[in-house]
Amino acid sequence: MKADRIKWEARYRAGDRPHDGPPSPLLRRWLPRAARGRALDVATGLGRNAIHLARAGYQVDAVDISPTALREAARRARREGLRGIRWIAADLDRWRPSRGRYDLIVNAFFLDRRLFRLLRAALRPGGVLIVETHLDTEEADGGPPGRSWRLRPGELRRLWGDWQILYARDGRARAGRRMIPLGRIVVRRPTPVRPPRRAGRSGSSRASSQ
Length: 210
Description:
Blueprint: H1 2-13, H2 25-30, E1 38-42, H3 48-55, E2 59-64, H4 67-79, E3 85-89, E4 102-108, H5 113-122, E5 123-134, H6 155-160, E6 164-175, E7 178-188, H7 201-209
């Protein structure tokens, strides 16, 4: 939505730096368990997670609504000599990832439940999805004010329970320099099991004659 872009542009131009700093501790912890290849960073902001993924050898698509944030993120990547990041200025209410494109998807501090269906389709079989964002709580944590933009306790397990859950926890966790209530999950998309090949007639005949 245009109003969202105006809001975030104003914040970044004013020098606001939401979720800036080191990459997500959850991402750093689970990255060794993910296959290398192509990654998607949803709502990348100033690019902390996208840059970490590029350092690890991924080709990264990093999407955010704010061109101002993406310009700063791209400057930081160039300063490190990183070339494997495609910075995409797009409204995530409308942007659609390609099906089966990614080996790893990171969705940190952005919640649009309608997007989850698209992320399911965008992840390759055997790929890993990492989600973390604010929990619905009475605690003043600097997150979005509306309850619809926060996770309900246990919601991520219910949404992703049909995939292999590698890690899931609701509770206080580190976000930058603070400990705040977060919902976090790491899941792997199952790899389809192929049925065993059936022997042909000639194979069956040879086996019976031995």
